[in-house]
Design goal:
36% of the residues lie in helices and 25% in strands. The protein has helices spanning 40-47, 72-75, 94-104, 110-123, 139-151, 169-184, 196-202, 220-225, 230-236, and strands at 2-11, 14-24, 29-33, 55-60, 63-65, 79-82, 157-161, 188-192, 205-210, 213-218. The strands form 2 sheets. Strands 6-7-8-3-9-10 form a 6-stranded mixed beta sheet, with helices on both faces. A 4-stranded antiparallel beta sheet has the order 2-1-4-5, with helices on one face. β4 (55-60) and β5 form a beta hairpin. α3 packs across α4 (110-123) and α5 runs parallel beside α6. The model has no long low-confidence stretch (mean pLDDT 94).
């Protein structure tokens, strides 16, 4: 589904991404791990057009995206992204937040989207909050609403960027359970996280990054039990399993 070839990104003279090569298969869950500042979030933002790439290419279901690509509005309907900061509109209700994209961007019928939204809200345990406003929700509830909002655009690929980083530890699990459910249902996903146990449970493959490069790609079992690189071993020593 996704093929990244020789991807490069600069901030001034600093090279944030160095010749990234990565393939993600249909229905595969790939978790990206690495220390802060290694380029994980930048990689996701390049895939979704939130950062302009300097070189290389991204192939999404056969469509080629390079540094001159302009049609990001169309691509973002295929690639959903959920951030750690929810990005909900505070003046809109949950229902209005969810319906905004499908109605305004995709020009879909309101009844169709509303029915789909209710199904997803039921799955994440928040149908009873459909008329609430973000100020009435907990952090975990806001994040689940943000996930539903992306899913109602019917994306082919979902990107999750540290979606539990801003949450209290007690409510992290309710968000991770939603992502685990999506994995079981066959959603293709790229996930950046610092939740090691979650990464081990949800990933088909682990991508480990450091200083803008992919250092290691492995199965969860081999990465956590016997990583190939010394850099990955040093990183894992910071966590207890």
């Amino acid at each position: 589904m996704l093929k990244i070839t020789n991807l490069q990104k600069f901030y001034g003279t600093h090279q944030a991404l160095k010749n990234i090569d990565l393939e993600v298969r249909h229905k595969e869950v790939v978790v990206i791990l690495g220390p802060s500042g290694c380029g994980k979030s930048t990689l996701l933002r390049c895939i979704n057009g939130l950062e302009q790439i300097a070189g290389g290419s991204i192939h999404l279901n056969g469509e080629t995206i390079d540094k001159n690509f302009k049609e990001w509005t169309r691509i973002r309907q295929k690639v959903g992204m959920v951030f750690q900061s929810y990005e909900l509109f505070e003046h809109l209700s949950v229902k209005e937040n969810i319906l905004l994209g499908p109605l305004k961007v995709q020009k879909r019928q309101k009844d169709e989207v509303l029915n789909e939204a209710k199904i997803w809200l039921e799955k994440v345990g928040l149908l009873h909050k459909i008329n609430a406003h973000p100020r009435e929700l907990s952090g975990g509830q806001k994040q689940r609403i943000a996930i539903v909002r992306s899913l109602c655009m019917n994306p082919e690929l979902m990107l999750f960027d540290e979606v539990t980083a801003a949450l209290d530890p007690e409510i992290v699990r309710e968000v991770l359970e939603v992502i685990l459910t999506l994995a079981r249902e066959g959603m293709t996903m790229l996930i950046v996280t610092h939740e090691m146990q979650f990464a081990k449970a949800v990933a088909d493959r682990i991508v480990f990054m450091d200083e803008g490069s992919i250092v290691e790609i492995n199965t969860p079992e081999l990465f956590f039990e016997n990583p190939k690189t010394q850099r990955a071993k040093k990183f894992l020593n910071l966590f207890s399993f």
